[in-house]
Specification:
Layout lengths: L2 H4 L2 H5 L12 H6 L6 H12 L7 H8 L6 H4 L7 H16 L3 H10 L3 H16 L2 H8 L1 H5 L3 H4 L11 H4 L12 E5 L3 H5 L2 H13 L2 E4 L8 H6 L2 H16 L5 E4 L2 H13 L4 H11 L2 E3 H5 L15 E5 L3 H4 L6 H9 L3 E4 L14 H4 L1 H18 L3 E4 L2 H14 L4 E4 H10 L6
Parallel strand pairs: 1-2, 1-3, 3-4, 5-6, 5-7, 7-8
Helix pairs in contact: 4-7, 5-7, 9-10, 15-26, 17-19, 18-19, 24-25
Bound molecules: iron/sulfur cluster (2 copies).
Length: 427
C-alpha cells in the first residue's frame, strides 16, 4: 500500500453513507449500481486501505467509470472529495498492477513534448480523415481503446493537419498600444483539434488591448493525473512552472476550462514538495480563464435590432462551474454580446459525458448522458450552443449532429469573435 493512498483515508472515512449522491450522479442514473456512485467509490478505497480488498479488476472498473464531474461533491452534505479519492484509487491501481506501456509513452514522452506529439497526431489526423478504423486496427490502437473505438470514431468530425502552433506566426499578437501582456497557455485540445478557437481567442485578446506571447510549453498534466499517473502529472506541472516563471507576462490565460482548472490545482498536486508547491502558488496568482478574464473588460457594443438576434444557450463545463466555481462570468460575457439572446439551458451544469476521453473509452454510457443534454438543448430552441472547454465542444458538436438538431456548437471565444469583431481575423 502506497503512502499516497494512505493520505486519503480520513477523507474517505468522512462519507456517512447517506446516499444523497445517488440523486445527482450521471453514471448511477444509468447503471443504478451502488459501485458506480460516490458512496461506492469511497467505500472501495477505504476498504482497500483497511486491507479488506484486493487491487483487481473489480476494484478498477467502477473507479475508471467515474466522470470526475464533482456533482456528488457539490451535493454531499459533509463535502467528501470523492473526485480526489477516485484519482488516488486509480493511482494505486496503476502503481500495483502497472501502467500500460502506451499510456506511459503518452504521458511521459508525448504530452510533455508538443513537437513530438504533433508528429504523432498529424499521422493520426491523416489516417482519421482517410478512415481511421482501418489504420488504427493495423497499428493495434483498437486494442488500446478496446471495444468502443469503432463507435467513437465519428465524435471528432475532421482532424486538422495544420495545428495552432503551426499557424501562430501568421497571427497578429500585438495591438498598437498594449495595456497588458498575456502569456497564452495552449491546451492540447485546441492546438491539435480546434485551432480556429485558439485563433479567435488571440484575436479577441489583441482587440481588447493585450499583447499575447505563446510560450513553448507542454500539456498541463490533467490527462495523466486523472488516469492515475501522478508522477507524470507532477513532472508536467514542474516543467510548466519553470517555463512560465521565465515568461515576462502579467497574466497566463487559457480558454480551456480543464487547463485553467488544473493549473490552479498545481499547489495541491505538488503539496508533497513544499518548494515546488510555493512556486506553483505564486504561478497560479497569474492564471485566468477566458471569460473569467474578459467578462468585465469587453466594451459596450451597439446592440443590433432584435430581428437579427441569435438565440444562444450555454453549457457549463464541470471544470468551470464546479472545479473553479465560474458560473456567472460566461453569462455576463454572453449578455454583453451584440445580437445575442441568451437562453438558459436546463441542467446546464450536468456533465455532457465527454470528460476528457471518457466518450471514447465508455462510448455507450457517454452517449446516454449526451442524449439528455441534447433533449435539454431541444427545449431551448437555441440556434447556438456555446461552452468553454475543448472536450465539451467536440462532444456537444457530435451530439448536435447525432440528434440532427438545427444548432451549431461554438467555443465562447469564437462567439465573441463573431459577434464583436467579425471581420478582424488575421492570417
Ligand atoms: S459521498 Fe457524501 S452524499 Fe454520498 S453517501 Fe457519502 S456523505 Fe453521503
Ligand atoms: S464525480 Fe460525477 S460520475 Fe463520479 S461519482 Fe461523482 S457524480 Fe458520479
Amino acid at each position: 500500500m502506497s503512502e499516497e493512498l494512505q493520505t486519503i483515508y480520513d477523507e474517505s472515512a468522512r462519507c456517512n453513507k447517506c446516499g444523497f449522491c445517488q440523486a445527482v450522479c450521471p453514471i448511477f442514473d444509468i447503471t443504478k449500481d451502488e459501485r458506480s456512485v460516490a458512496r461506492g467509490h469511497n467505500s472501495l478505497v477505504r476498504r482497500l486501505i483497511e486491507g479488506d480488498l484486493a487491487v483487481d479488476q473489480e476494484f478498477k472498473d467502477p473507479l475508471y467509470e467515474c466522470l470526475l464531474c464533482k456533482a456528488c461533491v457539490e451535493n454531499c452534505f459533509p463535502g467528501v472529495l470523492t473526485n480526489k479519492i477516485v484519482v488516488k484509487g486509480r493511482a494505486e491501481y496503476m502503481q500495483q498492477v502497472g501502467e500500460p506501456k502506451l499510456m506511459k509513452f503518452l504521458f511521459h514522452k508525448l504530452l510533455p513534448d508538443q513537437k513530438k506529439m504533433a508528429r504523432y497526431i498529424r499521422f493520426l489526423a491523416y489516417g482519421k480523415n482517410a478512415g481511421m478504423s482501418k489504420m488504427a486496427r493495423s497499428l493495434g490502437i483498437l486494442k488500446w481503446f478496446r471495444r468502443d473505438l469503432d463507435k467513437a470514431e465519428n465524435i471528432v468530425e475532421k482532424m486538422p493537419t495544420r495545428f495552432f502552433r503551426d499557424r501562430v506566426h501568421s497571427l497578429q499578437l500585438r495591438p498598437e498600444k498594449p495595456s497588458i501582456k498575456i502569456a497564452y497557455f495552449v491546451g492540447c485540445g485546441f492546438n491539435f483539434v480546434l485551432p480556429h478557437c485558439s485563433e479567435a481567442t488571440l484575436n479577441v485578446l489583441v482587440q481588447n488591448g493585450a499583447e499575447v506571447v505563446v510560450p513553448d510549453h507542454g500539456c498541463c498534466g490533467l490527462p495523466a493525473y486523472v488516469y492515475g499517473d501522478l508522477q507524470a502529472a507532477r513532472l508536467m506541472a514542474k516543467k510548466n512552472i519553470q517555463t512560465f516563471e521565465s515568461v515576462d507576462a502579467d497574466l497566463i490565460l487559457t480558454e480551456c476550462a480543464s487547463c485553467s482548472s488544473f493549473l490552479k490545482e498545481y499547489p495541491e498536486v505538488l503539496e508533497g514538495e513544499p518548494e515546488w508547491a510555493e512556486r506553483a502558488e505564486r504561478l497560479i496568482q497569474r492564471v485566468k480563464g477566458f471569460s473569467e478574464y474578459l467578462h468585465d473588460k469587453l466594451p459596450d457594443f451597439e446592440q443590433k435590432g432584435t430581428e437579427q438576434n441569435i438565440k444562444v444557450a450555454y453549457h457549463d463545463p464541470c471544470h468551470m462551474c464546479r472545479y473553479q466555481e465560474l458560473k456567472k462570468e460566461p453569462r455576463t460575457l454572453l449578455h454583453k454580446l451584440p445580437g445575442v439572446e441568451f437562453v438558459e439551458l436546463p441542467e446546464s451544469d450536468r456533465c455532457c459525458g465527454a470528460a476528457g476521453s471518457y466518450n471514447v473509452l465508455h462510448y455507450d454510457q457517454s452517449m446516454k448522458i449526451l442524449d439528455r443534454k441534447m433533449d435539454n438543448l431541444r427545449k431551448t430552441g437555441a440556434e447556438v450552443l456555446t461552452t468553454e472547454c475543448p472536450s465539451c465542444c467536440i462532444q456537444l458538436g457530435y451530439g448536435v449532429r447525432r440528434a440532427e438538431l438545427p444548432a451549431r456548437v461554438v467555443h465562447i471565444s469564437e462567439l465573441v469573435q463573431e459577434r464583436c469583431y467579425g471581420d478582424t481575423m488575421k492570417g
